[in-house]
Here is the input.
Amino acid sequence: MNKRSQGFTIIEITVALAIFATVTLIAVGALVRIIAANQKSQTLQLAVNNIQFVLEAMSRELRVGSNFHCHDDPMSVDFNPAPSQCIIAGAPSGAVIGFTSSEPDPALPTCRLVFAYRFRPNPANTAQFLVEKGKQAHCGENLSFVSLIPPDVSITGYRLGVAYDSVNQPYPLAFIRIIGSVGDREVEKTEFDVQASVSQRILE
Here is the structure.
């Protein structure tokens, strides 16, 4: 009695491999998209957290500061600020805010140091801005500035201003708005727009 050999034909194997390859390709593509979306979400969250941290730090120091001084030249910072505002047609119009901080001079505790926050054009890309903090080491000295935003975050716009009810009776309110994006490639780029309003807590 002859037994017919059992097995798969070449055509059946080819069809099975084609189906397996198609399913694998779809699954890998979906996995890559999920990973990319997760990376984009994490990058955006990290950037927003960084921006929020910067805004909170600025707000905290401004609240306990005094003599808010605002103008439109980021390269000119008065280390002995007098109260001034920068609001044009009801909109913030400054590039730098200098103020007397609550931090005393280590060598002269009766004197408080001057801080400043500024937005200035990025030398590497003039369509973007750097966000920097300036601080005196001692009273009467020039301010030393450091960048607050990591290089992978692009700041493309801002609003900065100080408003007083009266220059003679200063009750200052500072406005800060940061506009930008995170992500190098266009498909991964995500935009953000955050802002804060800060009023002086300790009035002179």
